[in-house]
Structure formats: C-alpha cells, structure tokens
Amino acid sequence: MTPVPDPSADVHEGRDGWLFLTGGTNRVLAQYGRPGLPRALLWRWRRIVADRVRRCARLGATYVHAVAPEKLTVYGDQAPGLAVDPARAPVRRLARWLTASAGARAFVDLDAAFRAAREDGPPLYLRTDSHWTVHGSEVACRAILSRMGVAPRSDREARRTGGTVRFSGDLGRKFDPIRIEHAPVAAFATQARRIHANALLAELEARGRGFEAHLGAHAVFRNDDPAADPRRLVIFGDSFCQHTAHSPVATLTALLADTFREVHFLWSTSIDWHYLGEVRPDFVLGEIAERFMIDLPPRGFRIERLAELARARKGDAPASEIRSDETDRGFARSNILS
C-alpha cells in the first residue's frame, strides 16, 4: 500500500510543493495575527538595536542589524490556505518601529530586498526548507554589504561549483515519506579558511556530528585573497549564518568570509561585548531569524558560557552550576566551512 503523507501540524503545504513553517515553539503563524508580537516587545527591540549602534560606535565599529524574513513573509501568496496578514509580519512591524530611532540607520531591510528580488529571479527559499537558496543568500549578502558601504565580490558566480543535488530540508523531513527537491549546490572556490574553532565545534566535528553545532559555536575565518576587503567583521547570528558553503542551504557566513579579510562567527542572539572589546572589529552584524524575535536576547552572555551550556546539554561536558534562567534559542543545524 502506498504510504500516505503524514505532515506535521507545524508545517503547511502550499502551492506546487512549497512548505511553510507555521507552528513550533515560536508559534510562527500566530505572530502574523493579533496581537502578534506585543508592542512592548517591539519597543524593547527598538531600544536594543539603538543601544548596539551606540556601544559599537564607542568601540570604533559599525553595527548593522538584519532580520532573516520567514518564508511566509516573502512567499505568503504561495500558501492561500493560511490567514496571513503581511503587514503584521514581525520584520515589517520592526521596520516601522525603528523609524526615526538611532537604530534606523543600522537596519538592513531584507524583507524589502527579497520582495524586490522575487519578481524577476530564481526562488529565494528552498521549497522543502525554511532557509534560503543560493540566490536568496546572495541577495541578503548584497543588502547587508550595501548598508555597510562595502562593495560585494563580483567574481563569485564564476567560482561556483554549479549543479543541483537531491535534497530534503528541515520541513520536508517532517513528512512520511519525506519531500525531495533538486536544490542548487551552494559550494564555490574561495581562499577563506577557518583558523579557529572552539571546543564545542571541534569536538562535534571530530565525532562526525558537526551538524549539531549550533548555539555556542564559535569560528574564525581568514581570507588572504588580494580581492578581499581588508577589514574585520564579527557576526552574531543563527542558522542563516551557519558555517558551510557545501550544502544546498546557503549561508551568510560563507559569503561574508569570502568578502572580508577576517570574519568571526558566534552563534548567539546576544552580543558578547567583552569579545568585541578584545577583537576590535570594523563591523558587527547582528542577524536573527524573524520567528526568534519573539524572545529577547539574554544580556551579558559570554560565548564561552553559551558553549559550555551547549556541551552540557549534549552530554559532552558536566552540567555544573547551570541555572534554569541561562537559556537561549536557536535553530539546531550547522556545519563547518573548511
């Protein structure tokens, strides 16, 4: 007997096999309704972004803030069975709340960039995944660099491996049988090399579990290509910045490591100000998935402590002195650009 698809209650199937995350712990679909994200929460985000701009400026760095839009925000018309009010999308509400604030000049409107790009280009998101395609990540990267005032690399397309691969993403794997698509390969030739990985990353990779490295992961990349921008960038981000170009799930870290002389990636929604004080970057990027805006980032979190907590949860380190309030959320998938 032919198996009947068994979709998760957290995933909606739209037109032509487009899959959308609607539930989960962040109750994604509810964020588009009323009340959606509370006004007080958006006010807090306004203050957080403005504070990051000011504190980075005191360190001699330029702060930019990017929210990775949900697939529903950009392609909601492909899910006609859902009651989605695009104007209530958290990223669009935040854009309005940032108007005339000190953080307005730091905000990278990826939602607007994606809406403009979707009309005359390849898909920006994978059909079976909640993340971007190669094209989507390139659009996001160019928008971020534009806000920084940095010229994008013009030669990357010629360095791409090309081709497609059979792939089932984080949404497609919630079905039985799983949903498969042919996704563009994201790999490209680059002189960017990883020069540091913290214990969390290194230990999981050594055990063949690099895909489990997420919250608390910390890596540094060096690019000696003469065409690379000579400045230093520190990224605080999530799965939209995971560390690999060798996956259909294209990410910002790989593209930005190909752009700058030195890139530091810390998987955290919090800013580690002590780390920035030591590294003294030229640019700081705070990236967060739209669905995670529902949770404000913890304050004063050091990347070493976050990595220690992550190792304890995975059984790789003793869970000593771990308090119940030391929590953070993230998307549990990452890999390494080697």
UniProtKB/TrEMBL annotation:
InterPro entries for this protein: ALGX/ALGJ_SGNH-like (IPR031811)
Compartments reported by the entry: Periplasm
GO cellular component: periplasmic space
Pfam families with a match to the protein in the record: ALGX
Record carries keyword Signal: yes
GO biological process: alginic acid biosynthetic process
Swiss-Prot/TrEMBL keywords: Alginate biosynthesis, Periplasm, Signal, Transferase
AlgX/AlgJ SGNH hydrolase-like domain span: 11-193
Region: Disordered, residue numbers: 317-338
Pathway involvement of the protein, from the record: Glycan biosynthesis; alginate biosynthesis
Chief location bin: periplasm
Comp. bias (Basic and acidic residues): 317-331
MF terms in GO: transferase activity
Designated name of the protein: AlgX/AlgJ SGNH hydrolase-like domain-containing protein
Organism (species): Methylorubrum rhodinum
